[in-house]
Design a protein that fits this description.
single chain, about 250 residues, alpha/beta, Spore Coat Polysaccharide Biosynthesis Protein SpsA, Chain A, two-stranded parallel ribbon, 10 helices, about 20% strand
């Protein structure tokens, strides 16, 4: 198996079908039977699972994994990592914001690196339409925090398209936690910690309607997730353990 593409899917019944209609013909043509698409349906309350099963009846390359818990993107990607069989293992958002041609560019340019990630902020990136000012500001502030707190000199940790070698996945898998908004940062931090090179390339990205993201709430959640992750990798890890045992059940119902 050459390639595994993981798609976390939470309440994506209206967008996932359009995305699969683009990805399946594109990768069928290039990889025939040598690739797989793992759709991780997690915590969904709509017809996302039904949509995926309808596609799986027609397309043998689709594998569906269902977890009724709201485990988030990080939890879904981890389930995919555990099941993926490809020499290269990547993940991409279910909304289709990253076209298949852009994901294929990751495959073609990974070279000898342990991972390659798409960037919406590098020179040469094509983003349409331009995101609202509040989302751009939130993204740049988050990136500054990543650089200050973790020393990751990466322009876009949060872009949904990433590709890793199987060796890199196996090396970092035991050390990644389910850290919500900080999952991608945790993954990149662990890649660097274990000595894998990370390549970043400009990408094509389209803003797709239907997002459930609320910038204000998301920004606060991102900051808290970053603070939590930084504490985990510090002598003050006990603070996180104490919080998890006391306040977390009430704050994150």
């Amino acid at each position: 198996m050459d390639l595994s593409i993981i798609i976390p899917a939470y309440n994506e019944e209206t967008r996932l079908g359009r995305m699969l209609d683009q990805y399946l013909p594109f990768f069928n043509k290039r990889f025939t039977e040598a690739y797989e698409v793992l759709v991780i349906v997690n915590g969904s309350r709509d017809r996302t699972e039904d949509v995926v099963r309808e596609y799986a009846r027609v397309h043998s390359r689709i594998r569906i994994i269902v977890d009724p818990r709201p485990i988030g993107k990080g939890g879904a990607v981890m389930l995919g990592f555990a099941q993926a069989q490809g020499r290269l293992v990547g993940y991409v958002d279910a909304d289709g914001a990253t076209p298949p041609e852009a994901f294929q560019e990751l495959v073609e340019h990974i070279g000898t690196a342990g991972a390659i990630i798409a960037s919406r902020w590098m020179p040469g990136a094509r983003v349409s339409p331009r995101q609202p000012l509040n989302r751009r500001l939130a993204s740049r502030l988050f990136n500054i925090l990543v650089r200050l707190m973790f020393g990751l000199r990466i322009s876009d940790t949060q872009c949904g398209a990433k590709l890793l070698t199987r060796e890199a996945v196996q090396a970092i898998f035991p050390y990644i936690g389910i850290t919500q908004w900080a999952f991608d940062v945790d993954l990149l931090f662990q890649l660097r910690r274990t000595g894998f090179a990370i390549t970043e390339i400009p990408t094509t990205w389209r803003d797709v309607s239907g997002s459930q993201l609320h910038v204000g709430r998301a920004s606060a959640d991102m900051f808290l997730a970053m603070a939590r992750l930084r504490l985990i990798y510090s002598p003050f890890r006990w603070v996180v353990s104490l919080y998890d045992r006391t306040l977390a059940p009430y704050v994150h119902r």
